[in-house]
């Protein structure tokens, strides 16, 4: 069949785009409810809604507190070499793949794989497990930020000085430390700063270990409830309304570049290092975290695009925005840390931290030394909340969309979707309460280190590329993309999906396992064996989905793989067609139902599995085929 005719048939496979109706449940058309038809999903009201929603989804806290620290830790400029390799060889290709897949199938993170390559449906389930665990603990950061924001509305920042009810005799203010004569006279060898004691003794009231979980911190529990309520009301009618807020978020972040940036350039310039295996691991995991890929969220957002939307162009622009924001925030953060190091008379290595240590210890300490400290503290924690909430909205929406698309006839009717969102938010809140106890920080670190770790994301990304490039067929997917955007993307995407990204992901995955170190807290507290085991259960709960679903699909097949492969051509001529074609016939009863289209719809799944089955039969094993 000619290429033009093939693309025309691909175009006819898709339903007409739908415009949203205000006041109705997202994904449901009023005329469908009135006529008793099966509910159909809607589309974005405008292109800007999609762009801003995606920008808000992956421009988040990782850009602010993880990228700057990793860049400094791994040698400044030397870190950028593996970072850009993973960016162009892994991050951007997988990001575009997920958005294009959602747009092509108009399905969420699970059902898109069921339609494109059913034997790899486990990819969708793995993504949902990861994002569900991520949603439980990520929002706890926002609860801490909200608590800090409330504490800012006082005549004096409570973490600026000692002599607070929670301070100990070891608390020493920075003004005393700066005066070296007074500092040596005090003979203070075992000291803590007021901001550290505020964080550990007031905010967390941290216990001695995960074995001592302790009671709830009710102030944090209320803050956690507040941010979940905000999250619910921002997504219960869809993410379209939240995307428009992203512009304010980005401007607030850029506004933080308030101090001379020369210190930041000096930091990067003075760092001399060569990339090591750990640098590559850090670069790879940072790319996958910052682009929010392998979570099903980008696929869900892309599924609301109109079929002819140029997602390739916008994915490239959004990728530039994401990485550019990381660099801008890196300069902003290290400008502040450089100012703080200069004020204290110490090296910047003594104040550089990552994660919660940067957001709730280093930066609050820095703003307490600035003019108008209360103003800068309020601006910082507002920025933290805006960035975090936007990412949380998108991740929860991706989770909800994926599950709703599994049962559209049930969950898209009336207000069932809203009720389902409320139930999911409430369940996540209850599970998150374990992280706002006195031992909650240990639980939080366990989730952060294992549940949504880079190992899990790399595992999912590897199979995504294998499924699209080697099973469905990279040329078939390129045909679909060409029909959607009107031209074929740069061949680099094809090479990345086929070879570069799988090699990078598997290499980084292996290195991560080889370099694995058990989790510790503050490099002092060592987690017990049972906690480490629980962490690996969290990690494997998502990774096991892909091979498990694959085995289930094969066991549910009708016959031996080789026999199925030999009768494939005959079935094309006598049967009404595979499930994929039946679905297309229901959507488009008047278009493209000829043998050429059936051949076009056929994927390479049977061919690939035939080889596997044949090899197994050589050693006396029987492997049934996955029947479509």
From TrEMBL:
Recorded family membership: Belongs to the sodium:neurotransmitter symporter (SNF) (TC 2.A.22) family.
Coiled coil: none
Membrane topology: Multi-pass membrane protein
UniProt: Na(+) binding residues: 56, 59, 63, 290, 322, 387, 390-391
Localization (cell): Membrane
Chain residue ranges for the region called Disordered: 1-41
Protein name: Transporter
Stretches that traverse the bilayer: 50-68, 80-101, 122-150, 218-239, 316-341, 370-389, 419-437, 449-474, 495-514, 534-555
A matching Pfam family: SNF
Keywords, ordered alphabetically: Disulfide bond, Membrane, Metal-binding, Sodium, Symport, Transmembrane, Transmembrane helix, Transport
Disulphide connectivity of cysteines: 162-171
Chief place where the protein resides: membrane
Domain of life: Eukaryota
Molecular function via GO: gamma-aminobutyric acid:sodium:chloride symporter activity; metal ion binding; taurine:sodium symporter activity
Residue ranges with Basic and acidic residues bias: 1-18, 29-41
InterPro entries recorded: Na/ntran_symport, SNS_sf
Entry keyword RNA-binding: no
Gene Ontology CC entries for this record: cell projection; plasma membrane
């Amino acid at each position: 069949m000619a290429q033009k005719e093939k693309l025309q048939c691909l175009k006819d496979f898709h339903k007409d785009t739908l415009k949203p109706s205000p006041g109705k449940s997202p994904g449901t058309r009023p005329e469908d409810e009135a006529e008793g038809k099966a509910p159909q999903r809607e589309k974005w009201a405008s292109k800007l809604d999609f762009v801003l929603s995606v920008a808000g989804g992956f421009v988040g806290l990782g850009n602010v507190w993880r990228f700057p620290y990793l860049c400094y830790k791994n040698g400044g400029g030397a870190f950028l070499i593996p970072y850009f390799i993973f960016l162009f060889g892994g991050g951007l290709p997988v990001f575009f793949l997920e958005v294009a897949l959602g747009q092509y199938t108009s399905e969420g993170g699970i059902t898109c794989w069921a339609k494109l390559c059913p034997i790899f449906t486990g990819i969708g389930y793995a993504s949902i497990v990861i994002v569900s665990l991520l949603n439980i603990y990520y929002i706890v950061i926002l609860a801490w930020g909200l608590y800090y924001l409330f504490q800012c509305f006082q005549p004096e920042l409570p973490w600026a000085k000692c002599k607070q009810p929670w301070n100990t005799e070891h608390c020493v203010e920075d003004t005393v430390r700066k005066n070296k004569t007074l500092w040596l006279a005090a003979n203070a060898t075992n000291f803590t700063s007021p901001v550290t004691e505020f964080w550990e003794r007031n905010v967390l009231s941290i216990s001695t270990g995960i074995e001592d979980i302790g009671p709830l911190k009710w102030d944090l529990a209320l803050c956690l409830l507040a941010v979940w309520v905000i999250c619910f009301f921002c997504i219960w009618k869809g993410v379209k309304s939240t995307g428009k807020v992203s512009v304010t978020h980005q401007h607030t972040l850029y506004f933080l570049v308030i101090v001379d940036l020369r210190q930041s350039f000096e930091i990067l310039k003075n760092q001399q290092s060569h990339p090591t295996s750990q640098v590559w691991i850090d670069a790879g995991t940072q790319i996958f975290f910052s682009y929010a890929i392998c979570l099903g969220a980008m696929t869900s957002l892309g599924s609301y695009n109109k079929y002819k939307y140029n997602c390739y162009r916008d994915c490239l622009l959004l990728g530039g925005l994401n990485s550019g924001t990381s660099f801008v925030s890196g300069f902003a953060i290290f400008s502040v840390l450089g100012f703080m190091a200069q004020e204290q008379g110490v090296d910047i290595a003594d104040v550089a931290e990552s994660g919660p240590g940067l957001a709730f210890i280093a930066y609050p300490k820095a703003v307490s030394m600035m003019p108008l400290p209360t103003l800068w503290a309020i601006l910082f924690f507002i920025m933290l909340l805006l960035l975090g909430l936007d990412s949380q909205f998108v991740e929860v929406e991706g989770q909800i969309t994926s599950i709703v698309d599994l049962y559209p006839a049930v969950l898209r009717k009336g207000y069932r979707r809203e009720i389902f969102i409320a139930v999911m938010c409430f369940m996540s809140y209850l599970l998150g309460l374990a992280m706002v106890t006195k031992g909650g920080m240990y639980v939080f670190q366990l989730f952060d280190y294992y549940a949504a770790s880079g190992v899990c994301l790399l595992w999912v990304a590897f199979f995504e590329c294998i499924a699209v490039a080697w099973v469905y067929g990279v040329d078939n997917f390129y045909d679909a993309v060409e029909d959607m955007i009107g031209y074929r993307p740069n061949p680099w995407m094809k090479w990345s999906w086929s070879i570069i990204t799988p090699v990078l992901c598997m290499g980084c995955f292996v290195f991560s396992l080889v370099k694995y170190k058990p989790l510790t807290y503050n490099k002092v507290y060592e987690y017990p064996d049972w906690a480490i085991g629980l962490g690996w259960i969290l990690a494997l709960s998502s990774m096991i989905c892909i091979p498990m679903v694959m085995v289930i699909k094969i066991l549910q097949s009708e016959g031996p793989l080789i026999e199925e492969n030999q009768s494939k051509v005959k079935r094309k001529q006598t049967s009404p067609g595979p499930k994929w074609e039946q679905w297309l016939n229901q959507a488009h009863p008047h278009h493209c139902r000829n043998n050429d289209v059936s051949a076009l719809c056929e994927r390479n799944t049977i061919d690939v599995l035939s080889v596997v089955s044949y090899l197994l039969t050589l050693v006396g094993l029987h492997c049934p085929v996955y029947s479509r």
